[in-house]
Amino acid sequence: MSSPLISQRQLDRVMNYIDIGGGEGAQLASGGNRLGGELANGFFVEPTVFAGASNEMTIAQEEIFGPVASVIPFDEPEDALRIANDTPFGLAGGVWTQNLATAHKVSRGINAGTVWVNCYGVLDPAVGFGGTKMSGYGWKGAKEHVESYLYPKAVYINLG
Predict the structure, then answer these.
(1) Nearest CA-CA partner of 70 in 94, 88, 52
(2) Where is the Aldehyde dehydrogenase domain (predicted)?
(3) CA-CA distances (angstroms) from residue 43 to 32, 33, 38, 151, 158?
(4) Predicted confidence (pLDDT) per residue in 59-111, tens digit
(5) Of 28, 110, 112, 151, which sits most exposed with the smallest number of CB within 10 A?
(6) Residues 3 and 67 in one domain
(7) Residue 1 has what pLDDT?
(8) What is the model's pTM?
């Protein structure tokens, strides 16, 4: 189950990306449809996974903001980093590994504002959230966000 999208416009946008993925040669492994039944009147899309995707495909290069994932094979962690960073966006990324050294190396190497290891989408209000590159600069939440509205000032008064 996935959460609803924000609007009909976003639903149409996500469905268009699903069509583009298939049209560019990725194989639809799961999902790809609007949810029906009791959810037919909402903006729900099945969680969608494309296999056989390449990093040059639109579904791998653009922020979809919907439940669509592209599976791109790689052999070495360096290949994964090259693939992950070969995009104009950098909001978030995820790493799945049983090797803690690999988790640290890859998470440091991903050019994104947030990187999750062995989980995805976990947020803590005490930790800011932001992106890099075309995904934006700066942070929302946490003290960094509050401090962006503040400025320091030094005042010196001689009373003598």
Answers:
(1) 52
(2) 3-155
(3) 13, 11, 12, 42, 64
(4) 999 999 999 999 999 999 899 999 999 999 999 999 999 999 999 999 999 99
(5) 151
(6) yes
(7) 60
(8) 0.79
Residue 112: exposure state from Cβ atoms within 10 A (0-12, 13-18, ≥19)? buried
> pLDDT tens digits, residue range 5-42?
999 999 999 999 999 999 999 999 999 999 999 999 99
Question: Are residues 18 and 3 both part of a single domain?
Answer: yes
For residues 46 and 66, give the distance between their C-alpha atoms in angstroms, rounded to a whole number: 10
Residue with tokens 């729900």, as numbered in its chain: 44
Token duo for residue 158? 């001689």
* Triad 34, 89, 69: Cα angle to 5°: 30
Into how many domains does the chain fold?
2
Does residue 57 have a pLDDT over 90? yes
Same domain, 64 and 84: no
Task: Please give the C-alpha separations between residue 111 and each of 28, 50, 76, 80, in angstroms, as whole numbers.
Answer: 28, 23, 17, 12
Question: Domain range holding 23?
Answer: 1-73
51 and 67 assigned to the same domain: yes
